[in-house]
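User: Continuing from earlier, I have the next pair ready.

Assistant: Great, send them over.

User: Here they are, in order.

Assistant: Folding the first of the pair now:
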Amino acid sequence: MAIKRHSKVDSSFNMASMTDIVFLLLIFFLVTSTLVNPNALKLLLPKSTNQVSAKPTVSISIKHYLPSNTFSYHINGKNTPVPLGEIEGLIQQELMNQEDPTVSLHVDKTVPMEQVVNMMNIAKRNQYRIILATSPE
């Protein structure tokens, strides 16, 4: 009596696990691609979660008075305002012997960009590093 064995190897492949892996990879790459390239024109700058490790040696504050549309400039948080024409000379005196001169710029939300650029131009002329201070989120 010869007993026949019917033990054939099943050559079919189950694609269910492969489709799960491909689906998870697709979700992963979609999520990471949106994190790498955020929207380029999100201009709500006054709030930020980033911290800068550089310690500013001088801080400049620009306050905007809306009713009269005037600005006051303050150095190192002093209450007495400084005229725009004297700011560069005062900053040069403060940063004269500094190894890595850094200026921190504290600007009110309503200050026009022109005023901020004026302060950045002063820092660029004197080769100072400048930090735009923001409030934490």
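And the other member of the pair:
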Amino acid sequence: MSAGSDKVGARRSAARRILVAWMALFTLLSAPAAHADKDGSIDIRSAYTAVEEGVYYLNGRVDLRLSKDAQNALENGVSLNIELQIEVSQRRRYVWDKTIASLRQRYQLDFHALTGRYVLSNLNSGERESFSGLDNALARLGEIQRLPVIDEALLEPETRYDGNLRVQMDIREMSGPLRVLTLFWGDWRVTSEWYRWPVQR
């Protein structure tokens, strides 16, 4: 492919992004001025670790709900970012607990208007899954299954450890023409409380 063809393709791609942004802007201006619920919610229902072949794996269940604004933003081309913040801490009697391990598991959820599908990307592994509905995508995202956290060899015998999990969703990272949408949605973010459980040896 020639350099000229590359430039034409890049211009067409940029034009499509601009068109999507203006379509989203038109949709917002045509909608009622009052915005719905500004809040979403994240409820961590359960979390626990199980050791297999010398590695502790995290399993759990999280309920994720988007605000109406966040859902509108997603359906108008803005990516939803989700981060699982996981820590293993050593309990200490007279000073602050010591963090032994820290992990950030990141996902990105996008809506593809042409196909009507929601695409969930695991930004740590590169894996992608496609869903026909938003509820299905959020339900899959809330299923934490066998996520490796820490090697058993790093934990000392006769020492008490806790696992800690917090989940965050946001629509802050916009680029290019889509930045115009921040005029309406701003830096939407919702974060759960820390959920703690004992790590059993």
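Worth noting for the second one:
The two ends are 58 Å apart (CA to CA). The longest helix spans residues 3-30.
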